[in-house]
Specification:
211 residues, alpha/beta, Rossmann fold, 7-stranded mixed beta sheet, 7 helices, 7 strands, globular
């Protein structure tokens, strides 16, 4: 056995131990992260805005995103209901539709919810039939100065081979945590709830992803 092969084996072992074999997100996920993204201690996930052609079944995506973000353990995460959001910002749903917020709105949210930042989400596409697909963008916005600390966009189609290969990896990781269902990764191809969890998990991972 040559010295080069031994070195390669040793490096592979170190990568496995260190967890560096985790693949990057699919090309259909893009993101921008600032150095301040880890600063907020408490984050509120507001109800996600949904496009005109997106059905009510997409409402679960906001809850799923909050669960994924909470599991990442970077921030304390609270999920804000539509009723509570309207009580704080009674100006209608326009504040969610535009994808940004005025300084006064951010101040009201900060004082009412005792948060440092809010998550704004937009669901542009959600196909709940096989093959499931999801188009989603999210922004982490500071309540202190309105800066966008992190943003990510995903256009994930379960019919695409790249997404299926990444889904297999994600499902294997989920299975390692003891949370996977017995039907295998292919269940996510026709399960909107499971596919949404996959999409949200992969999105929030970009908060700490190193290029």
């Amino acid at each position: 056995m040559t010295r080069a092969i031994l070195i390669l084996w040793a490096c592979a072992g170190l990568l496995a131990v260190a967890g560096c074999s985790r693949p990057p997100p699919p090309h259909s996920i893009s993101h921008q992260t600032t150095k301040r993204a880890s600063e907020p201690a408490r984050v509120a996930v507001l109800p996600f805005w949904t496009g005109d052609k997106v059905g009510r079944s997409a409402n679960v995506v906001g809850e799923t995103f909050a669960a994924s973000l909470r599991e990442l353990a970077h921030h304390e995460v609270i999920l804000v209901s539509n009723e509570r959001r309207r009580a704080i910002l009674p100006g209608g749903d326009d504040v969610l539709a535009v994808g940004s917020m005025k300084a006064d709105d951010l101040i009201q949210l900060r004082e009412a919810l005792h948060v440092d930042a809010v998550v704004l989400g937009r669901i542009e596409q959600f196909e709940s039939f096989d093959p499931v697909s999801l188009g989603l963008s999210v922004h982490l916005v500071s309540c202190l100065d309105g800066e966008v600390l992190w943003s990510a966009t995903a256009h994930l189609d379960s019919a695409r081979d790249e997404v299926q290969q990444d889904l297999k990896y994600w499902y294997g990781d989920l299975n390692g945590r003891g949370n996977a269902s017995i039907g295998g990764w292919k269940m996510a191809l026709s399960s909107p709830a499971l596919f949404s969890r996959y999409a949200c998990d992969r999105l929030v991972e970009t908060l700490g992803w190193k290029e």
